[in-house]
């Protein structure tokens, strides 16, 4: 864990900067700050750039709620996820929504498309509507976003993985999940194992699993080749992944895919090619999606308790909102190895 990351850890009880504080720091009037944010065409470029840089540095968020409502606590909770096309996040959202709605809260939902700059813009917008809390998928944020959240004084819950959180954290250990599957494949006597992922700079949790996978293979004295696809998880991308493994690593006896969509696509493609699974090649995935459990052979995978993760995250946020004592800031929800017929 880097010192830089630790230095940006959120301080509970820190005050949000005001418009006047931004103006003082930028050396301009409050009305100039307001114009730079709301009518930028009325402010010269140099002043506008200076004001916006100060806004970002201080983590200032304009309050979009008018008049006396601005000081009232809303019944909205912002939820930011990287994809609404991925069943993994839909299940987490379901757990969050069900739990929050039971206590009279509604969610404001944002999709980043795995873009941390888009996450920053979404969070700025949602915080401006005086949300009562924020739930975001993952611990990685832009520096500007971390600065913004460090100065925000309401509950922040980061889900999906474990680590040095800004406030509250519910997730699982992705390094250990990668190690777990690699150990399983070695126990099944596979010795030429290729990891296949997609867009790993964006899907960084899949990279974490690869790092754990690689540690286990290297400890056993084996190579740990990896193929990175340029299309996020889909059946078609999985088929492409299989074909690349067969072309580049013809002696491979197992493939560890970053997710079940890729793994299932590869399994179906292998069958169309007349290959037997796992006789010709073994295939494993991650997530424990229903799709992989309804193919033949059933997919070996790791199941994460996504809906329960959402429920637990919501419960911890509600405790904070109700001023109840939160005894644990971090919760490891764990995972389960599901051994199917594909390995």
From TrEMBL:
UniProt feature coiled coil, ranges: none
Residue span, HTH lacI-type domain: 17-71
Residues in the signal sequence: none
InterPro entries recorded: HTH_LacI, LacI/GalR-like_sensor, Lambda_DNA-bd_dom_sf, Peripla_BP_I
Entry annotated with the keyword Transcription: yes
Gene3D superfamilies hit by this protein: 3.40.50.2300, lambda repressor-like DNA-binding domains
SUPFAM superfamilies per UniProt: lambda repressor-like DNA-binding domains (SSF47413), Periplasmic binding protein-like I (SSF53822)
Any Pfam family hit: LacI
Keyword terms of this UniProt record: DNA-binding, Transcription, Transcription regulation
One Gene Ontology term of the molecular function aspect: DNA-binding transcription factor activity
PANTHER family per the UniProt record, alphabetical: LACI-RELATED TRANSCRIPTIONAL REPRESSOR (PTHR30146), TRANSCRIPTIONAL REGULATOR (PTHR30146:SF33)
Protein name in UniProt: LacI family DNA-binding transcriptional regulator
């Amino acid at each position: 864990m880097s010192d830089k990351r630790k230095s940006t850890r959120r301080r509970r009880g820190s005050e949000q900067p005001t418009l006047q504080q931004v103006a003082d720091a930028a050396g301009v009037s409050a009305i100039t700050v307001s114009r730079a944010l709301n009518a930028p065409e009325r402010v010269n470029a140099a002043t506008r750039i200076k004001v916006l840089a100060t806004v970002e540095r201080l983590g200032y968020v304009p309050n979009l709620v008018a008049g006396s409502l601005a000081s009232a606590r809303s019944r909205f909770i912002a939820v930011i996820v990287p994809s609404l096309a991925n069943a993994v996040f839909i299940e987490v959202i379901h757990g969050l929504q069900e739990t929050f709605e039971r206590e009279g809260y509604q969610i404001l939902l944002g999709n980043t498309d795995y873009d941390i700059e888009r996450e920053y813009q979404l969070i700025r917008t949602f915080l401006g509507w005086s949300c009562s809390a924020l739930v975001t998928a993952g611990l990685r944020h832009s520096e500007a976003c971390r600065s913004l959240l460090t100065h925000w004084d309401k509950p922040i819950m980061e889900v999906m993985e474990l680590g040095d959180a800004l406030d509250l954290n519910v997730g699982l250990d992705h390094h250990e999940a990668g190690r777990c599957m690699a150990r399983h494949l070695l126990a099944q006597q596979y010795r030429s194992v290729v990891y296949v992922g997609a867009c790993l700079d964006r899907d960084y949790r899949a990279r974490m699993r690869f790092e754990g996978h690689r540690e286990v293979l290297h400890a056993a004295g084996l190579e740990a080749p990896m193929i990175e696809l340029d299309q996020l998880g889909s059946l078609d991308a999985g088929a492409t992944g299989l074909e690349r493994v067969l072309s580049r690593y013809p002696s491979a006896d197992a493939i560890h895919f970053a997710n079940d969509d890729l793994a299932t696509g590869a399994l179906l493609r292998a069958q169309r090619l007349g290959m037997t699974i796992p006789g010709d090649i073994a295939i494993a995935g991650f997530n424990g999606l229903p799709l992989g459990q309804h193919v033949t052979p059933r997919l070996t995978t790791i199941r994460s308790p996504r809906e329960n993760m959402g429920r637990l995250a919501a419960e911890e946020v509600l405790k904070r909102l109700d001023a109840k004592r939160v005894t644990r800031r971090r919760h490891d929800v764990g995972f389960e190895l599901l051994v199917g017929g594909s390995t």
